[in-house]
Design goal:
Elements (H helix, E strand, L loop, with lengths): L1 H25 L13 E5 L5 E5 L2 H9 L15 H24 L4 H4 L10 H29 L6 H12 L2 H6 L8 H18 L1 H5 L1 H11 L9 H12 L6 H27 L7 H6 L3 H7 L3 H18 L4 H12 L9 H20 L4 H4 L3 H11 L6 H20 L6
Antiparallel strand pairs: 1-2
């Protein structure tokens, strides 16, 4: 056990170094030329280094500082209460540490006063949320490492793994959001957790026995980050695997029970708000029409329905070029004929998850390139599995060179800033 923990600790340390190398280098990327290039405040560390404090971050920090704000009518982050409470749990200890550093003189007051006035009392919460970014991204890297060797049967190349990890940690999402208060690091963790859960449900009867508890846990995670709702279809897939080759009444009751347990945390939160005389507010649905636009589309005449769906689908496709290099590489290695034998099960499983994730993104009704990067982890795993057909160090060397070139391009390119 101690040996296993030591291995994980050494790997976590190595991946921490990778995260720092990538994200610190982003601080020296080109500075925005105008304030129209970003939403928030650009903080200059030096003449040549800085980062953007995203405009959404202030509300996250204020709510973490005063979590009772979540009980106010129309509160913007009311749909993600557990993420706010995470910010509270981390932010207050960091704030006390910052205050201690200031009292001891190790953190000069003049340095804090250089921050924008509204950020000065929130410095501890800012640092706390950045630490959460690090933890989420580190968890994604460790989970990717585990899935890489599991899906490749332990035969994957170390150099291929390193290259794929660079792609995962160096991209426009980490560039724009790692050093700010936001939830975008979940973009990488959620698909990998779905893949891990799906594999466990496929291969472990004990996990299928835990479906009710997993449904409750998934419902709680949906109060941290909205995309965790995709855990429900994965759990229903686990119930389908558990069926006795028939679609009995008991099977459908099990599906209904799992769905209820999954929604129970949200229903409880809505009920708690009702007790305080507050109507639940979902900012993403109200402001951007996320998912709810589908209900409105069905209420239109058929021609109007087709026009609206087509328009939104086109808007989604406009974001896809952001991950075009990975789509192209995945398509290339999948379609390129090879004689080497390869199990199709991992590819079928990953492709199913990719379709689930793509359908969810296409149905959101709110499209940004940073959201489409949620497809990146699954594409990288597909590439990893197919590259088993290309053994040898040369494949890993070429892919590693491409990853390093990709990172350099991310550093020197202009933007994105938010």
């Amino acid at each position: 056990m101690a040996t296993l923990l030591g291995r994980w600790f050494r790997r976590a340390t190595a991946y921490t170094g990778l995260i720092l190398l990538a994200t610190v280098s982003f601080l020296f990327s080109p500075v925005p030329l105008t304030e129209d290039e970003y939403c928030g405040t650009y903080l200059h560390l030096t003449r040549f280094a800085g980062f953007t404090a995203n405009c959404d971050g202030f509300v996250y920090m204020e709510d973490a500082r005063y979590p009772a704000k979540l009980l106010e009518q129309g509160e913007v982050r009311q749909s993600r209460p557990l993420f706010i409470l995470l910010g509270t749990a981390v932010g207050y200890p960091v704030t006390w540490a910052v205050q201690g550093l200031q009292t001891s003189g190790l953190l000069p007051a003049s340095l804090v006063q250089k921050l924008p006035v509204k950020y000065q009392p929130l410095l501890g919460f800012y640092v706390g949320y950045v630490l959460l970014n690090y933890v989420v991204l580190l968890a994604a890297l460790l989970l990717f490492w585990y899935l890489y060797y599991r899906l490749t049967g332990g035969h994957g190349s170390r150099w291929v793994l390193v290259a794929l990890l660079i792609f995962l940690v160096s991209n426009q999402v980490t560039k724009a959001f790692f050093w700010t208060v936001h939830q975008q690091m979940f973009t990488f963790l959620v698909p990998l957790l779905l893949a891990y859960t799906g594999l466990q449900l496929r291969e472990s009867g004990r996990w299928r026995a835990w479906l009710p508890g997993l449904a409750l846990l998934g419902g709680l995670l949906a109060l941290v980050y909205g995309s965790f709702v995709l855990g429900l279809p994965v759990l229903l897939y686990g119930a389908w695997l558990q069926r006795n080759k028939t679609f009995s009444t008991g099977f459908f009751l099990q599906l209904a029970g799992l769905s209820f347990l999954f929604t129970l945390p949200t229903l409880s939160w809505v009920g708690l708000l009702k007790l305080h005389g507050v109507t639940y507010y979902n900012h993403e649905a109200q402001s951007y029409g996320q998912l709810v636009w589908l209900r409105a589309a069905w209420q239109q005449p058929f021609t109007g329905f087709l026009q609206l769906v087509g328009r939104n689908l086109l808007r989604f496709l406009v974001t896809v070029p952001a991950i075009a290099p990975f789509l192209g590489l995945a398509a290339g290695v999948v379609l390129w004929p090879r004689k080497a034998r390869l199990s199709h099960q991992p590819l079928i499983f990953l492709s199913g998850l990719l379709l689930l994730q793509t359908g969810f993104l296409a149905g959101l009704g709110y499209y940004k390139e940073r959201l489409t990067f949620a497809l990146l982890p699954l594409l990288l795993l597909i590439i990893a599995v197919k590259l088993l057909q290309y053994p040898g160090r040369q494949t890993g060397a070429w892919l590693l060179a491409a990853a390093l070139g990709w990172h350099i391009w991310q550093v020197v390119r202009y933007g994105p800033f938010s």
